[in-house]
Recover the amino acids of this structure.
């Protein structure tokens, strides 16, 4: 009957928060290695530089840095949550950069061409919707290929990254080129995202409402995945498409939907970034959009939890902002990228840590149980002995079961 | 207990997994040169105990003594060094390597930088002749039968000079002839001084081949006895802890209306363009259990896929409850109302990484009550799960929150059966519903099938186990190469006769 006792086992603190704890450990490990690198490269100012990184440059920049953190977090939060969704539903969408930049182009193009003629807030809402649709379209073909011909999503989406990147350069040159500066035409003021009260409380930082849109999207994605029938289907399809087919769920439709939605969110990320009030332009460099790949690290650090993506993105951008201030201590700009790279690298250990923590805590619990049992044992030993003999009588136990 | 003869001694072994004590204070001595069977239901702890011996798990308490020495086995490598070998239930072979390459893998003898295959080949050939393990050393694993693959696994152990051989349910994948051969191989090994540990829940085999048998139940050692002195019935009783009936108790069938009518069903293989299912027609009536029998690979699985909608059919008509469902989607069929216990519970039956509650809701989550405007009603899903768990006695570590993957095979199957039967389907299709299960669970599932029949539903059973076919069904359809060879009454035919139909030797005129 000891089985029945164990059955009612509560899950321990460590087990319940395993994914959060492992994310935190990954962060700490990454930071320690970063500190090591800094100390080695410039022992005299290394520690102060590290402190600046940790404090996000706030001692120098003040609240403005908080606003800038929000501003930088917006696009990577979007690509991050897009990838959380993709990974949770089993589609390995590595096409973030392509979907992101195509979405960005859609937003800028619409804003430049039609923004001034659109009334009120529609001047920025419509371009954002276009970025959403274009991002989805860019994921559509890999999605269909996957659903109907089982083409590897990783490969097809990577290919679409290149196609997207070159097309956007081509389109910018053809339609919205600012030939003087060699970049896209500026987004008209009416189409820029409103800043509301943000400049007044963050000392004229670059923050705008894009941040709130991204946070709301993250929450919506979480609700979709965890609370709705559609989310139930999408996750099940990602885990075992055969079983969902068997259960009468349209697996193909769910796969296509998941990748479309993931692409749409990446595209919206591009839209939010390039419509930012601070004024961002699509330059004519032939380079994948880094935000697309950063999204993978965010998803990893967040353990594919859409709510986690909010904090992971904030953390990454906080480091970036802090890193800029490290130049005050004589560090090159590049070392900052190395440091953030190291931290991102460690975030990929989250999964490993996650399983390790689960195992360790399970062991600890067992030990505790055994000790508790041992403490009670002397008193119960005799009783137990009687019980055991009883249990050995097969017929009697059969009676119990029935 | 006379300890001097014991090659292995387990002393107070305890191994726990979250929520379950897999081995609870087990003490057991294994004599040198015996075939020792471990008998128990699914999840009784036999495999865990053997995995502890093979170093795959570390016990929380207890010690293992091998040849009089207290040892700590930290991994399969150390186990191999101690002369312990294991044939796993799922073979660990490299498909595109030859037999010889597989055998020497990890123990390659070399000359300088190069593989010395000749010495290895000589040793392998010697071993295979000595023990009657006939297999072509140069054949690719992918080209040989499952029975031969198993011999490769045995040769692998012997090549590593294993003296203690663990067989984890070795007969589950074999044909009756192959089983007989394996039994004689095992006896040969034992007479050469090897010690064999044999995990099984098939009582006849144990009785036939083992010297002693140890019965485990729910992680506890119940009894060790000489096989010669116990009957299979007694063993069964020890194993499940109560009387088990091996024959299925059921009254005569009272078939009424036709619930499933299949006409001219044809399915063509997309690769070979050969008809896998060749113009077959049959029906299932309410109140009867119809069984599709046959040797694996004669189109049975495809018939089921066609009926359930998992695979498209090329020709023919399927009528369920008077409604043509030939072109209906899987969901329409499910709601129409067809229950399906699939052949492969891991591939089709469960989303292994979902909780038990989510799995039990797999065919309900979209129904009103389980969802509201697209939002899942978790209270309902959870209470429904608790209800099914109680009603069908599904056991697991953490109840409805248990991840399906961590449940034992028998309980996974129980969960599927619970889900399908609870839909109250007019036609229940059960494909190999008892595969890999122990007698207790088999009895339970057979009872459920008969209950389903007696409540006026149709049951279509597909099974490779002839005993099951004969015991459970009211009508047997034997298929051979995609055609129905006969529509037989199990009360009027013998097992041998059914075998002839299965082999395509005999055919009923009417069935053409």
């Amino acid at each position: 009957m000891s089985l029945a006792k164990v059955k009612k086992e509560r899950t321990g603190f460590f087990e319940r928060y395993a994914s959060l704890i492992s994310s935190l450990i990954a962060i700490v490990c990454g930071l320690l290695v970063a500190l090591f690198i800094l100390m080695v490269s410039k022992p005299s100012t290394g520690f102060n530089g590290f402190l600046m990184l940790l404090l996000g440059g706030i001692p120098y920049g003040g609240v403005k840095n908080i606003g800038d953190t929000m501003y930088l977090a917006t696009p990577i939060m979007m690509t991050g949550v897009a990838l959380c969704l993709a990974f949770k539903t089993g589609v390995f969408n590595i096409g973030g950069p392509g979907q992101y930049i195509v979405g960005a182009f859609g937003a800028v193009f619409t804003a430049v061409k039609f923004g001034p003629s659109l009334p009120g807030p529609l001047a920025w809402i419509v371009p954002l919707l276009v970025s959403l649709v274009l991002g989805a379209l860019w994921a559509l073909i890999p999605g269909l290929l996957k659903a109907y011909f089982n083409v590897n999503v990783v490969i097809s989406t990577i290919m679409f990254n290149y196609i997207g990147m070159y097309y956007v350069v081509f389109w910018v040159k053809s339609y919205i080129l600012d030939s003087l500066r060699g970049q896209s035409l500026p987004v008209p003021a009416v189409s820029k995202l409103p800043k509301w009260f943000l400049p007044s409380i963050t000392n004229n930082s670059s923050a705008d409402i894009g941040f709130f849109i991204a946070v709301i999207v993250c929450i919506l994605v979480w609700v979709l995945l965890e609370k709705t029938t559609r989310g139930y289907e999408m996750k099940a399809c990602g885990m075992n498409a055969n079983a969902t087919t068997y259960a009468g769920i349209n697996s193909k439709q769910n796969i296509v939907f998941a990748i479309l939605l993931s692409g749409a969110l990446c595209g919206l990320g591009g839209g939010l970034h390039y419509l930012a009030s601070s004024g961002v332009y699509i330059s004519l460099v032939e380079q994948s959009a880094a935000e697309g790949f950063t999204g993978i690290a965010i998803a990893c650090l967040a353990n594919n939890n859409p709510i986690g993506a909010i904090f992971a993105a904030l953390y990454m951008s906080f480091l970036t902002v802090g890193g800029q201030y490290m130049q005050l201590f004589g560090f090159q700009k590049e070392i900052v990228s190395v440091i953030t790279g190291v931290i991102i690298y460690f975030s990929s250990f989250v999964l490993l840590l996650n399983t390790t923590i689960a195992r360790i805590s399970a062991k600890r619990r067992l030990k505790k149980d055994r000790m508790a049992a041992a403490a009670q044992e002397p008193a119960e030993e005799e009783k137990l002995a009687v019980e055991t003999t009883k249990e050995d009588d097969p017929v009697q136990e059969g009676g119990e079961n029935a | 207990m006379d300890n001097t003869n014991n090659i292995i001694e387990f002393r107070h072994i305890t191994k726990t997994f979250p929520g379950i004590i897999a081995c609870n204070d087990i003490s057991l001595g294994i004599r040198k040169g015996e075939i020792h069977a471990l008998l128990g239901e699914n999840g009784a702890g036999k495999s865990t105990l053997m995995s502890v011996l093979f170093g795959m798990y570390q016990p929380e308490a207890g010690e293992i003594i091998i040849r009089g020495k207290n040892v700590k086995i930290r991994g399969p490598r150390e186990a191999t060094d101690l002369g312990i070998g294991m044939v796993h239930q799922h073979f660990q072979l490299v498909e595109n390597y030859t037999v010889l390459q597989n055998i020497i893998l990890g123990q390659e003898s070399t000359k300088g930088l190069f593989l010395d295959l000749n010495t290895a080949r000589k040793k392998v050939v010697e071993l295979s002749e000595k023990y009657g393990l006939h297999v072509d050393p140069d054949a690719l694993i992918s080209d040989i039968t499952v029975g031969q693959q198993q011999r490769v696994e045995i040769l692998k152990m012997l090549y590593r000079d294993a003296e203690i051989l663990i067989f984890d349910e070795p007969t589950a994948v074999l044909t009756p002839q192959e089983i007989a051969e394996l039994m004689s191989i095992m006896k040969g090994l034992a007479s050469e001084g090897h010690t064999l540990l044999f995990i099984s829940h098939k009582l006849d085999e144990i009785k036939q081949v083992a010297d002693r048998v140890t019965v485990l139940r729910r992680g506890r050692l119940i009894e060790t006895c000489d096989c010669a002195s116990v009957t299979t019935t007694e063993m069964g009783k020890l194993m499940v802890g109560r009387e088990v009936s091996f024959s299925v108790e059921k009254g005569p069938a009272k078939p009424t209306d036709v619930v499933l009518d299949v006409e001219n069903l044809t399915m063509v293989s997309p690769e070979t363009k050969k008809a896998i299912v060749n113009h077959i027609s049959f029906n299932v009536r309410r109140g009867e259990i119809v069984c599709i029998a046959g040797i694996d690979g004669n189109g049975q699985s495809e018939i089921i896929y066609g009926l359930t909608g998992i695979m498209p059919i090329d020709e023919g008509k399927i009528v369920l409850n008077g409604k043509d469902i030939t072109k209906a989607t899987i969901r329409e069929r499910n709601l129409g109302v067809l229950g399906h216990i699939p052949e492969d519970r891991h591939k089709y039956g469960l989303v292994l990484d979902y909780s038990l509650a989510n799995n039990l809701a797999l065919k309900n989550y979209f129904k009103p009550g389980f969802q509201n405007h697209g939002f899942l009603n978790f209270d309902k899903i959870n209470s429904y799960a608790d209800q099914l768990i109680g009603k069908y006695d599904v056991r697991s570590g953490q109840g409805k929150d248990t991840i399906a993957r961590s449940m034992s095979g028998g309980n996974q199957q129980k969960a599927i059966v619970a889900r399908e039967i609870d839909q109250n389907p007019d036609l229940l299709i059960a494909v190999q519903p008892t595969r890999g299960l122990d007698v207790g669970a088999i009895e339970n599932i057979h009872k459920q099938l008969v209950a389903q029949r007696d409540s006026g539903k149709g049951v279509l059973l597909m099974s490779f186990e002839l005993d099951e076919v004969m015991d459970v069904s009211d009508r047997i359809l034997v298929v051979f190469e995609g055609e129905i060879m006969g529509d037989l009454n199990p009360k009027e035919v013998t097992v041998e006769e059914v075998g002839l139909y299965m082999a395509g030797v005999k055919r009923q005129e009417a069935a053409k």
Notes: The longest strand of chain B covers residues 6-17. Chain B touches chain A through 48 residues (CB under 8 Å). DSSP finds 17 helices and 24 strands in chain B. The domain at 6-240 of chain B is CATH 3.40.50.300 (Rossmann fold).
